[in-house]
Amino acid sequence: MLKNIIFDFGNVIMNYDPNEILNHYQLTPEEHQLLLKNIFQSKEWLEIDAGKITEDEATEIFLSRVPQKLQHKVKQIMTTWPGNVDFYEPVFHYISDLRKDGYHIYGLSNTGMRFANFVKDSEMGDYFDGYVFSAQEKLVKPDPRIYQVLLSRYFLKPEECLFIDDLSANTRAAQEVGMDAFTFKIDKLGDLEDYIAEK
After folding, report:
1. Are residues 136 and 179 in the same domain?
2. Taking all residues of the chain, what is their mean pLDDT, rounded to a whole number?
3. Which residues form a coiled coil (predicted)?
4. What is the three-class DSSP state of 156?
């Protein structure tokens, strides 16, 4: 019996698109591409998610790679980018409905602690019964151990869980630890609603 529904964040409850994030920062096309490459497409960005370095440590590395005139933009982006993500309102409405129907809602995301704390400190936190964030655990999906962290921390039975992610590698990993899983895109919200309704 399905009792717990676990959501990834990027491209499931929000549109994670670095190009769209950078559009908030008054950059020339050249500056945009330079910061896209040196921040969001860098190996350090992945290391933030993995908990290997902090956002502050990464910022110092990024600052060393850009012209001095762009350094204030790097600092601004690194401290404010979570607030410049577009969240999918229909998904949050659906999560509210699921909670009213008695389901427990959890988050499981590959992300650094700056975004994790933004979520926990905002009204979004009211939608979730608990979270696991990769940087905090120093584990990233699809490592099966991060799913086990969620299950053990919140005393969940895998056969009572549905995991929703936009990447098939991550949903396959959830299935391998015994969860049901659904590979999601925003245009599949209706399919997800039908899938859960049949449970």
Report:
1. yes
2. 95
3. none
4. coil
Q: Are 5 and 167 in contact (CB under 8 A)?
A: no
If asked whether residues 102 and 181 sit together in one domain, one would say yes
**What residues have CB less than 8 Å from 127, skipping those under 6 apart?**
92, 95, 96, 99, 105
Identify the domain containing residue 49 by its residue range: 18-84
Q: 181 - beta bridge partners?
A: 163
Q: Which two tokens stand for residue 78?
A: 């690194």
171 and 155 fall within a common domain: yes
Where is 182: in which H helix or E strand?
strand 180-183
Measured CA to CA, the distance from residue 120 to residue 125 in angstroms comes to 5
pLDDT of 173 above 90: yes
Q: Quick one: pLDDT at residue 171?
A: 98
> Is residue 126 over pLDDT 90?
no
| Mean pLDDT score, 130-143 | 97
- Count of residues for the chain? 199
45 and 57 Cβ atoms separated by less than 8 Å: no
